[in-house]
Amino acid sequence: MRLSIVPANTNFDFVGRRRLAYPLSALLIILSIGAFLVQGLNFGIDFRGGILVEIKTEGPANVAELRATVGGLGLGEVQVQEFGAPDDVLIRIQQQDGEESEQLQAINILKDALGEQVSEYRRTEFVGPTVGAELISSAIWAVVLAIGAILIYIWFRFEWQFGVGAVVALTHDVLTTIGLFAFTQLEFNLATVAAILTIAGYSINDTVVIYDRVREELRRYKKLDMPAVLNLAVNRTLSRTFMTSITTLIALVALAIFGGSIIRDFAYAMIWGVIIGTYSSVFIAVPVLLALNLSRESLSAGLDESEEAEQDASAEDTPADK
């Protein structure tokens, strides 16, 4: 039996709902920017600099005892966190004043204090402030260049209106994702940057599929007005959009529950990204084409005469017969 989440011949007025979607998206962006300006981001050790130690204990870890031991060493702000298996613990220590030797000294103090409580040191990392600043700069450039490259790609593949529409939707997704992390104070680290770039890729893939259908329907139904053709394209890709989003979300929820603390923030960002990316592809990227005055003539410019004749004949069809 074939699974069908979206009924066939769905005819929902997505374009008409832009009057609700635009204010909602504007509100989300304003709240995101406000949360970023007021609370800022909870940068992880990748960006702030500091010491990260991953240990394995003999038997289930006594996190409270470990936290008391590490907290009493006078090393400043520390975090002790259990993740994954009951005997896996992650310890974060703020960057120590001084050079690398002071950081190594702090690590030795930590190891001496933990003593036999630890059966294995799996990872010890130190990130300096210069490296952290460089990583922040690189992360910003990575996101900006990715969006710029997507704009150029969409522009060449379709028309400039499609490129602008895709970038508007992508910027919406990136800003609201950063706003989510500012509002919840989830740790913002390199994995989060990777998640943002992945969200951009996922969202643009969804948008390109719908745009392809928009271009196809605009060439096919030349007697329908523009909002009707845009609605037709979104409705005919709705089943694919929902199935892709739901199956992706199932995998991400599993990662968030069973993936451990290191990958959990990445999974949270991706879950939000899939939801907001699907929303923006349908309610932002497509209706924006109306505001940008997309014309049918520019899309038919590359067609030869035989193809034009064939599509003129098909224009007599009605959407309901597909």
Report on the architecture of this protein.
The chain has a 4-stranded antiparallel sheet with strand order 3-4-2-5. Strands 1-6 form a two-stranded parallel sheet. It is α+β, with helices and mostly antiparallel strands. It has 12 helices and 6 strands. Helix content is 66%, strand content 11%. The radius of gyration is 25 Å and the shape is elongated. Residues 312-322 have low confidence and may be disordered.
Index terms:
322 residues; alpha+beta; four-stranded antiparallel sheet; two-stranded parallel sheet; 12 helices; 6 strands; elongated; disordered C terminus
Roughly what percent helix?
Answer: 55-70%
Helix/strand class: alpha+beta
Order of helices and strands: HEHEHEEHEHHEHHHHHH
Provide the gyration radius in Å. Answer: 25 Å
For the termini, the CA-CA separation is 22 Å
Number of β-strand runs: 6
Q: Helical segment tally?
A: 12
